[in-house]
Design a protein that fits this description.
The chain is of the alpha+beta class. It has nine helices and 21 strands.
């Protein structure tokens, strides 16, 4: 199932101009606040009417300005989860979930209900009212209600924005399960790097109402040249890996990736489970000889492929480690002193404590 969107809309001095496709899995709309992310999902849901363009799901047109098509929101079969959940306070969890039956084909109601309750761990909450739920529990119920409407597409607009770190991690685990279980496109809006790196199969980077880049999480979140569009986000490398060893004495894990192994701290995953880690370019140092007797746990041999232009006294260097490309941001003087150039053998040095582990990678 594929979502296709190509729309424009003027909003005062701001102009939205967005075009991309999204298939199964999580497509993250990422960018700084005010980039137009929520306007895009509102257009998909039918809440915001574009001035021009076309929106379709698997060829079925939801909006087409030239043909005068604008399918009403209730008929679009799009599930929408807002930041605050928006549950009915006078209904218990079971009743909030059952409300979605109004939008779901009768044949799927019973078995689908049990499946969603199990998927999101809601069985023990069914008789509670929203006032007696935590923020994370409310969002799980809101996600469940959206799924029970039998949507062709699920929109999640910064669903973790109001939660603390513990609750965010809890909900991200459920979203990972849902991503792997529910075979529909999920559009996930966020400006939080850790959420996008952990959950996204595809990233659409937005800036000033337009799409600045589209690609896999590894491609987009690793690019150092996109910082002006991404705000404070720092480029580097996003690596899909798998846990191959746990050192319980020192709270370290060894991860295997397409290029070697990495030692990482504080990995809450079992041996054999997939994880995704982010390596910021500024945390990667370069040596031309393998160093001895150092505290850095990760010394990765490879070949320099790109030495970027000098900008503000710094240079971005790409290093191929097997089939994986790492990026290092160093001073222009250091690059000159080392004589860095494409084709040169080098070692990437990465502290174990500098690696950001962002949960399970895409399967």
């Amino acid at each position: 199932m594929t979502l296709t969107i190509d729309v424009e809309r003027g909003l005062g001095a701001f102009r939205l101009k967005s075009a991309f496709e999204a298939g199964e899995g999580v497509t993250a709309l990422f960018g700084r606040s005010g980039a137009g992310k929520t306007s895009v999902v509102n257009a998909i849901a039918g809440i915001l009417r574009p001035d021009r363009g076309r929106i379709a799901i698997d060829g079925e047109v939801l909006f087409d300005s030239e043909r005068g098509i604008d399918v009403p929101t209730p008929l679009r079969r799009v599930g929408y989860v807002f930041q605050e959940g928006r549950l009915f306070p006078h209904l218990n969890v079971r009743q909030n979930l059952r409300y979605a039956r109004l939008f779901s084909p009768e044949a799927r109601r019973s078995d689908h209900f049990e499946r969603v309750v199990e998927l999101l761990g809601l069985a023990h909450l069914l008789e509670r009212r929203p006032a007696n739920l935590s923020g994370g529990e409310k969002q799980r119920v809101a996600i469940g209600r959206a799924l029970l409407s039998n949507p062709r597409l699920l929109l999640l607009d910064e669903p973790l924005a109001s939660l603390d770190e513990h609750r965010r991690n809890e909900i991200m685990q459920y979203i990972e399960l849902m991503r792997d279980d529910v075979k529909i496109p999920i559009i996930y809006v966020s400006h939080a790097v850790e959420e996008v790196v952990r959950l996204a199969d595809t990233v659409v980077l937005m800036s000033a109402g337009e799409v600045a880049a589209v690609g896999t999480a590894e491609e987009v979140m690793g690019r150092t040249d996109l910082r002006p569009a991404a705000g404070t986000f720092e480029g580097g490398a996003v690596i899909d890996a798998r846990v191959v060893e746990q050192d319980m004495q020192y709270d370290l894990a060894t991860l295997a990736f397409d290029g070697g192994t990495l030692t990482v701290t504080d990995v809450d995953a079992l041996v054999g489970e997939p994880v995704r880690v982010r390596m910021r370019a500024r945390d990667v140092s370069i040596a031309l000889e393998r160093p001895q007797r150092i505290s850095i746990q990760n010394v990765l041999g490879g070949r320099i492929t790109v030495v970027g232009p000098e900008r503000g006294g710094v240079v971005d260097v790409s290093i191929a480690i097997g089939a994986t490309t790492l990026r290092s941001r160093i001073t222009a003087r250091a690059a000159w002193q080392l004589g860095l150039a494409p084709g040169l053998q080098a070692y990437a040095l990465v502290k174990a404590v500098s690696l950001d582990r962002h949960g399970a990678g895409a399967p």
